[in-house]
Write a structure and sequence with these properties.
- Strand 7, helix 6 and strand 8 form a beta-alpha-beta unit.
- Helix 3 crosses helix 4, helix 4 runs antiparallel to helix 5 and helix 5 runs parallel beside helix 6.
- This protein folds into two domains: 217 residues, Rossmann fold (3-Layer(aba) Sandwich); 67 residues, Alpha-Beta Plaits.
- The chain is built from twelve helices and 14 strands.
- The longest helix has 16 residues.
- A six-stranded mixed beta sheet has the order 6-7-8-3-9-10, with helices on both faces. Strands 2-1-4-5 form a four-stranded antiparallel beta sheet, covered by helices on one side.
- By secondary structure, the protein is of the alpha/beta class.
- The chain starts with a strand and ends in a 10-residue tail after the last helix.
- 35% of the residues lie in helices and 28% in strands.
- Bound molecules: adenosine-5'-diphosphate and magnesium ion.
- The site of magnesium ion (MG) has 5 residues, from helix 1.
Length: 322
C-alpha cells in the first residue's frame, strides 16, 4: 500500500503536436486539499482527465489510491468521485432523481443508496430542493448537486475541475465550505482553479502549472516565503513620473501596475521605503498611500514565469491582483 492518495510521475500528454502536459510529477498525501493552480490553457483539465482515466496515458505513471491508472481502471474509477468543469446534469431529472440515477449506475443497493442520498442532500443543503428539476436550479445549487453526486460512491479522492468558476463570491465561499466539510470526513481533494486567492486561502498544498509544466509546489506559506523578498504598494498622484524617478534605483528589481497602484519589487534585502518617501516629496509627487507587503501567489507566479497576470489571463478574474 502506498501512503499517497495520488502519485504522478513523469506524466506527459500531447494533442498531436501540442504538448499540453510536460513531464509533471507530484504526490498528494491522504487527507490533503491539493489545488492545481494555473492560467487558462495551462493543462489542468488535461491532467485531471488523465488522472480520472478519461483520457489514456501516453507517457508516465499515475496511481490513485494505490491503483495504476493505466492498468487498473475499474479499481481507480471505484475510488474516485468527479465534478467536471462543464456542467453535466440531466435537465429533466429532479435533484433526488439525479442522485438516485447515479447511484443505480454504480449499482449501489437501495438500502445503502437511499439513506446516503439523504445524507448528501443535507451536506450540500439541498434537502428542500429534492423535487426541483435541475434546469430550475441556480448555478451554485447545480454545482452543489454535482458535488453531492461525486460523493455518492464514497470516494477516496474527489476530483473537481474548476468547482467555483463563474460563481459569485458568496456562492464560491459556500462551495469551499462544502469542500472542506467533505475533506474533514477524510476525503482527499484534488481540484483545479485559476483563482489564486481561493487556492491561497483554502489549500493544504498548491501546485502551480503553466504551459504544461509545474513551476512551484508546496504549502501556500512556503511558496510565498521562498521568494524572500518584499514589495511596496504605492499610490501616487502621478504614477508615470514616479516610475521615471525610481526605475533605476539600485534596490528596485521591477515595477508593475495593478488596480491598486504601483507594485515595486525590491531586490533581496532591499530597503527603499524612507528613501522613496523623501525622493517623491522632493520631486513634488504626492503619495496617496504606501505600504510594505509580503509576497502573494501572484508574485510567486511572476517570479517563476517572468510574466504577470495581465499576460496570462484573458478573463481578468483569475490572476488579477488583490
Ligand atoms: N481536445 C483537445 N484537442 C487539442 N488541444 C487541446 C484539447 N484540449 C485542450 N487542448 C489544448 O491543450 C492545452 C491545455 O488545455 P487544458 O488542459 O484544457 O488547460 P486548462 O484546463 O488549464 O485551461 C491548451 O493549449 C488547449 O488549447
Ligand atoms: Mg480547464
Amino acid at each position: 500500500m502506498t501512503e499517497y492518495a495520488v502519485s504522478v510521475e513523469g506524466l506527459n500528454y500531447n494533442y498531436g503536436k501540442l504538448n499540453a502536459v510536460n513531464s509533471i510529477s507530484f504526490n498528494i498525501k491522504k487527507g490533503q486539499i491539493f489545488s492545481f493552480l494555473g492560467p487558462n490553457g495551462a493543462g489542468k483539465t488535461t491532467t485531471i482527465n488523465l488522472l480520472i482515466t478519461l483520457v489514456p496515458i501516453q507517457k508516465g505513471k499515475v496511481t490513485i489510491a494505490g491503483f495504476d491508472v493505466a492498468t487498473q481502471k475499474d479499481e481507480v474509477r471505484k475510488s474516485i468521485g468527479v465534478v467536471f468543469q462543464d456542467q453535466r446534469l440531466d435537465r429533466d431529472l429532479t435533484v433526488w432523481e439525479t442522485l438516485d440515477f447515479h447511484g443505480r449506475i454504480y449499482s449501489i443497493p437501495k438500502e445503502i443508496r437511499y439513506p446516503r442520498i439523504e445524507e448528501l442532500l443535507e451536506l450540500v443543503e439541498l434537502t428542500e430542493k429534492r423535487n426541483v428539476y435541475t434546469k430550475n436550479l441556480s448555478g451554485g445549487m447545480k454545482r452543489r448537486l454535482e458535488i453531492a453526486r461525486g460523493l455518492l460512491v464514497q470516494p477516496k479522492v474527489l476530483f473537481l475541475d474548476e468547482p467555483t468558476i463563474g460563481l459569485d463570491t458568496q456562492t464560491r465561499k459556500r462551495i469551499w465550505s462544502y469542500i472542506k466539510k467533505v475533506n474533514r470526513e477524510g476525503v482527499t481533494v484534488f481540484l483545479t482553479t485559476h483563482y489564486m486567492d481561493e487556492a491561497d486561502q483554502n489549500s493544504d498544498i498548491i501546485c502551480i502549472i503553466d504551459k504544461g509544466k509545474i513551476i512551484a509546489n508546496g504549502t501556500p506559506e512556503n511558496l510565498k516565503k521562498s521568494l524572500a523578498q518584499d514589495y511596496i504598494h504605492l499610490q501616487t498622484d502621478d504614477d508615470a513620473k514616479t516610475i521615471q524617478l525610481i526605475k533605476d534605483l539600485p534596490d528596485v528589481r521591477q515595477i508593475r501596475n495593478s488596480s491598486k497602484g504601483l507594485i515595486i519589487h525590491l531586490k533581496e534585502g532591499g530597503h527603499l521605503i524612507t528613501k522613496l518617501i523623501d525622493l517623491l516629496r522632493t520631486e513634488g509627487v504626492e503619495i496617496v498611500s504606501i505600504a510594505l507587503v509580503e509576497p502573494t501567489l501572484d508574485d510567486v507566479f511572476i517570479h517563476y514565469t517572468g510574466r504577470g497576470f495581465g499576460d496570462v489571463s484573458h478573463e481578468n478574474n483569475g490572476f488579477t491582483h488583490s
